User: Fold these one by one.
Assistant:
Number 1:
Amino acid sequence: MSIQMTIELSTEKPRHNGFYTAQLDLPATDMEIEDAVRRARFHNKSARRYLAIEESELFDASYLAVGTDSLHELNYLARRLDGLSDEDAVKFAAVYAARTEEFPRDAYMQVRSAINMTYGLDAVPVASNVSNNYELGKFIVENDFDERFENIPDSVLEYLDYRAIGKSFREQDGGEFIGRCYVPTRYYETQNVYDGEHLPPPSPEQSAVFSLLVAPAPESDPDEVLDLAQWLHLPASVEQMDALAEQLGADKIQDCVFYDFKSGIPQIEKYMIHSMSDIEKLNKLAEDYSSLTAEKRTMFKAVMERGYTSTLDGAIAAFKCMDNYEFDFEAENSDDFFKKYLAYHAPTNFDNRWLDGIRSEVDADRLLQRLGATQTPYGIVSKQFGSLFALTDYFEAEKFELIEVVGQPALFSDSRISDTEVPNGLHRYDLRVGDDDFCDGAIEKNVYVNYGGSILLQQPLDLGADGYIQLDEDSSPNFTGEEMTAEKFASTDFTEYDSEDFNQTGGMRL
């Protein structure tokens, strides 16, 4: 697909202190549209919303009557334009220009009319290499389009006013010059294919979460099978994948290769898909993602923004632990959230308008750091098992989650901890997540793929000759619900720790 137009969605913020905005290139898939709608908070119909066409090369979009309900119509128009041949695109541009020239200054064309102009273009002729009245007049005379000039001697031709001839014919034809082409628009007849209410149902490509361009495995040169490649749109049934494999001459879809990848989840990119052996995982994620509400899909992408984007397995792990986070879609940045946080903890009779003039970027960033929360394009997301509105001291040292892992007390962070940040007396390790979150993961010194968090322990671990400790259901992290600073953790004797989560012999009661 090629970009036919770029639009901007915007929604006024709750206290009228700016707008959420998102740009979207059309045509777009349903998932791409949803992503832009959620980033711009355009789904909030109780707020003031605006939709504007920022750019369109083929036609002058300023003549279109565009409203907040025009998004899917504009996308269908872009899809229709994308499907036109180069010649038909020129014809459309000419017919559109001719119709808008007839409009009064304050009148606008309905998107429905523009969509219908993409139909019936076969009846419209086009002349190439004709871009002005002079060239048009010469084209008419030389090709005997007017019987008045058929028998004129060649010696007289040089005295003809080609410009006037072309101008006269263009006015009769309702003709338009588009680039290096001339289009007589009087041959176009208005179409009424689209009634303004019932858009065609989405195609599999339009509604897909992921799409892969799949081909048979080549024997030597990868280009030798590229002409056979077909798009596989996920989620797909086993029968659909088997049918495509058979069509491509393979026993099963895993025997094929893919050449391109399109994702409706921006955080899941092509480099994360290693081969068609990942197809079952990818398809299951597409199925699960499709079953979520739009709100939950947005939250998943916000959790992914925290750093689970390096592998497909990491994305699946993020999906499984998504409910361990809190999410606020209203706050676009730390400053927005800071004001909402203050209002949340203020007395019920507090006048929130006092907050409108506050510019508190430094303190706002400090608050997110204290809470372990992260700013994303979709809103603010908490740390795992954290609360966005927990009370926190201004000068409080960073707290970590207190857990038990491999029978030892430890501190957990889902953000990376560097060795320079580790207090004296503590030891840092990384957690790797598996298919079943931490239950089949591992503890290693450094994890770069399938990273699940970092831990601090009082005693070093013996990672063995293989350099890792395999985790199972009994040894994987158990979260106590408590938090503790690294300094306090380093100085705490857990054999005498007074907490309902520990017993007096040093074991954690979880």
Number 2:
Amino acid sequence: MSQSQSTPAPAPLTGMALLVTGLLLGLANFMVVLDITIANVAVPHIAGGLAVSPSQGTWVITSYSVAEAITVPLSGWLAQRFGAVKVFVFGLVGFGVCSILCGLAPTFGFLVFARVLQGLCGGPIMPMSQTLLLQIFPKEKAPQALGLWSMTTVVGPIAGPILGGTISDTIGWHWIFFINIPVAFGVAFLAYRALIARQGATRRVPVDYMGLTLLIVWVGALQIMLDTGKEHDWFASSFIVGLAIVAAVGFVSFLIWELTAENPIVNLRVFRHRGFSIGVTTLSLTFGAFFASVVILPLWLQTNMGYTATWAGYAAAFQGVLAVVMSPIVASQVAKRDPRALVSFGVFWMAGVAIWRSHFATNADFMAIALPQLALGFAMPFFFIPTQSIALGAVDEEETAAAAGIANFLRVVAGAFATSLMTTSWENQASAKRAELVGALNQPQSALDGMVAQGFSADQALRQLEGLVQSQAVMLSTNLMFLTTAVVFAIAATTIWLAPRPKRAAGPGGGH
């Protein structure tokens, strides 16, 4: 559907029209980022409302993330085939429709299905909003435009936990999805009216259907295996073994196909650049550990520390405060300093915070939880901003879009995989620690007799002792999870030094 006829170019947007359109694009990006963070603190409410365990409840997050990741490599092809404006608007409308389905979900299975559809629609929104910003803003204003876009990305983690907690506690978890509806449809309508005249030429470009199919098969099989492994007793189950075989064979087939295809859906040849390979390895390790801990924290606070979703959201939101402050400062330093040093500093800082959090106790008050979150926010821009410069600055300019698509894909998939692994390990370790504590109890009968003497019934005394043991077991398991993330952060902070210093600044268009 090539648009070869010549039409007068529309006048460039200026003044208030440019600002409003930029804000609309930023709002769409904000909604997508918010939708992930808003769900984190709502997981216990969703799990309770739909009668599943909290670890199963995290499928609401991982299913969306995997579906979103699968569509990210497609966004460049979609923009060429249908135009960035139409892809952006269609993504928003689909996101709004799927938000309705999520909010009305009668069963947990239906909710996960709707979240997969929502992720497929939401995947192109972020890269298309970035692409359209760079198209409508004059080149001399591109840095300010990207600054506006980036701010919406770092503000989301502040607003998400607060909104998610407050909404879940007051009007019900369904409304964390319903609030997307006016934003999605409103931005879609206004953006279409403002931007459709600037729809560029489209062209038929081949799509790698086999590569896309293999991508969906191996990523989907691996994620289902990680999410359902515990309830099927892992490799004692033929179902899990079958998923593992499908994932392994699918992955190898995907690699072979993509390296030999003429128009691969994922251009794996960019991995020949050492800077890109090391950059995305650091990105995946760090974001995986970071995102998994972001999911675990509110789960622990609500299921074991007596926090409401609202207060868990307040505690989690502190991580965004210094991130907003430091983002422009770090961005101004990337061109002046070795970005590897900035990344290493930031990720080692995150490791230090993880070690700090690994010393939590069951009597920790709100500020003891919130202060490490505040410190974590300081380090986030040191990680996110320079890593992109290292990875994308290492590839040829014509490969930037493909490389950015792969980087975003790996980042999102790493977060989903790490979340599944950590929530499963968290529960397994809690069970193991409970068994250890029960075996180490010193004269439990004497403790029970003492509580009975204080007025407890025998059943009350037993429940009190069991509750104390369980609380301590979960606390030990939680601290172990945070300590594990510290090790991963330290490995990532060291790994980045294997990359060469970028020879050029990464170009825009990093969403594809």
Number 3:
Amino acid sequence: MKILAILAAAIVVVAGASAVVLLNNDDDDKGYYSSNSDCRLQVLGNADKNDYLDDNDVTKIKEMISSNTYDQMADANNDGKVDETDLDLVQKMINLKKSNSGKADSEKESMTVKYITVNNDIRDAVYPVKKLIVVNTQGISKK
């Protein structure tokens, strides 16, 4: 049971850390993109799938709304459709990042975002992540 608890804590930590990286990257780092979805946090609303939430995602969602197309990554609220609500949520995420810049943790506003787990489940995470716990699972074996 301890191993399962440690593993569960590790998954939460990785998800939270990935959300911080995804939502807090500077625009200077736009050259990075990971196509390995097993090892990165996929935050819904990242419509252009480049690991950054920015105006490009807003543009992509607007295109999908006008063409009446669907992609799960653009469906920020995970309701099965891409619409104005998704557009508003992504814009809120972008604005929150800007609004929280330079503030102490106690002054930062937060919001819930949705992400896809490694098991393809949709889960909630609170952004910004204020505390992280790092757990090393290397060397753990099942007996």
Number 4:
Amino acid sequence: MTQQRAALVIGNANYTGPNTKKLRNPVNDASAIAKRLKKYGFGLTQVSDGSFSDMRVALSTFQGAIRPGGVALVFFAGHGIQIDGENFLFACDTDASGENQAKFSSLSLNQVIDVLDRSKADTKIIILDACRENPFEAAWHRSGATRGLASVFAPRGTIIAYATSPGQVALDGRSSNGVYTGALLQHIDTPDCPIETLFKRVRNAVAAETTGKQITWEHTSLAGDFYFNTSAGTFVTAYKASSLADSLFVLDDGKKSHQIIRGLKSYDWYAQNPALDRLKPGLANTINDDDLFVLGRNIYQAANGGARTAEGFIRDFVDKTSGMKPDKIHPLLDGMLFEVFFDSKGELRENIKGNMFDDVFELQKFSQFKDSFDFIAETLIGAHGDFYVVPGKGHTLSVSVVTEKEKRGRRITGVFIDTVNVFTLRDAEYAEDEDGPTLTRGVTRENYEEELAKELVVPRRLLQVRYSPPVQGGDTLRYPYGWGVTKQ
């Protein structure tokens, strides 16, 4: 079962309290980290330029989101300081006119640790890019021994990562991100990288960037491994790693199945079509599961690229596989479904390979293929795929499309899912011009709903679309250029 992941992400830059100084990067840092965490399955509680009250409310909300056996992560970027050996994370309205004022108007790191320690999460992570040079220290006449943050005890199952060593300060960075967060962003996408190894790589990157002036530090009591990004090979056991990351798959031309795969890999229709014609039920029944899985992947990629025989094979899959043993059909279809979502390294695609998505998911209507759709659903959950509904589960998605009447039809202005408008401008060049009309293209209702289903990664038959106001039969929908739906 996939662990539930919850994160509290705070970025404070616009400091307004006494003796504090505005920072350049923390809001950007927090936003970039939040985007990555969402990609890897974390539910987010976010604060940008938050007050002390905002931070306390967010901590409480986050506490309620932590699940037993799950992962709980806190990221903070902004001003932080130790006072009498205790660390405090500054809100934008923290009163730094004196030590007592600062203590009672900022978030105690000990309080954050206590929330995590009391939770039943298996893995607890705290990342602090919060050790920047602070001007209020001079106002308090404090010694250099109290610079930066103090080391703290990490309760069992916890790792605490600091942007720099205890008592030292970190650099705010010359780009849009701080040096530490920039290095973390550089390495967090590495697949199958244990978190301790990740932070070692971050340490090397920060040291190189600062010519050794800034050395990161961690305190850990983790009992097991944790990975932000896991490739399918870490949790799919039914197939070999060389089948899941099929760039590692070695072709043996002595095998008939490999000869077919080579033909399909050619990207040449004149080679792909006759190669697939050789796949007969009698041959399929002699092929091992891993070869059938890779064969399924290549049938789908050929069909996605327009090879007619491969397109027909998917559309007539029930007839084409008639005579194959059920336990041979299963890995073949598994491979097709896997290819939709995973690349040649076994990593989740940024954008699905979707030209034949609806066709292959039509097969979900047949009960004999249930195991394959269960396989892809569980695989996507394991990979922390971010979908409105998990493909393969067979769930319906309802959306409401809002339109406005214009001369040539009805312009789409919103697409609402669970009260949230997910219709956004994707390309800034198409931003609405005050001096002219928004550029739109005309689409039929049928074509628009097919496009929408593909964008939402939902089989067309499982997408329910309602229009506000209702669209009449003769109405033309106008789709603004540069716009589309996004996962919020």
